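Bumping my old thread because nobody answered last time. Still need a sequence for this structure:
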């Protein structure tokens, strides 16, 4: 079993920036790991934000051009730089990880992942 530890988040005004980080530890074995984030607001399902699978980056349409994910090529960590934040970005952000996946993998579904971080609150408000 792997553990995911998140850091970052907080309160920022609209148009501001925040950075989230996620570290993967535990029984990572010989796998290379795809690392990314989902987010969730009260009463709604967990929503895909982004995932880094080796050198391939996938983003939700709502964050394209504003959010950038980076990592260490599948080893143990990833960083999410969030720019031009909007009030609708307010949510609890959850880091997730899975062994590198092949084309056709349903990476946008939360049920495709077994490992999750503890979640960190991001609030965008004036």
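Sorry it took so long. Here it is:
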């Amino acid at each position: 079993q792997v553990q995911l530890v998140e850091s970052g988040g907080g309160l920022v005004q609209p148009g501001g920036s925040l950075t989230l980080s996620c570290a993967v530890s535990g029984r990572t074995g010989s796998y290379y790991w795809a690392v990314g984030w989902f987010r969730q607001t009260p009463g709604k399902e967990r929503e895909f934000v982004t995932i880094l699978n080796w050198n391939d980056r996938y983003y939700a349409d709502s964050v394209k051009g504003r959010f950038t994910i980076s990592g260490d090529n599948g080893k143990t960590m990833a960083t999410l730089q969030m720019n031009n934040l909007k009030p609708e970005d307010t949510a609890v952000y959850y880091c997730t990880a899975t062994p590198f996946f092949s084309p056709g993998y349903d990476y946008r579904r939360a049920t495709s992942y077994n490992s999750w971080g503890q979640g960190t609150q991001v609030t965008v408000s004036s």
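The mean pLDDT is 92. Let me know if any region looks off to you.
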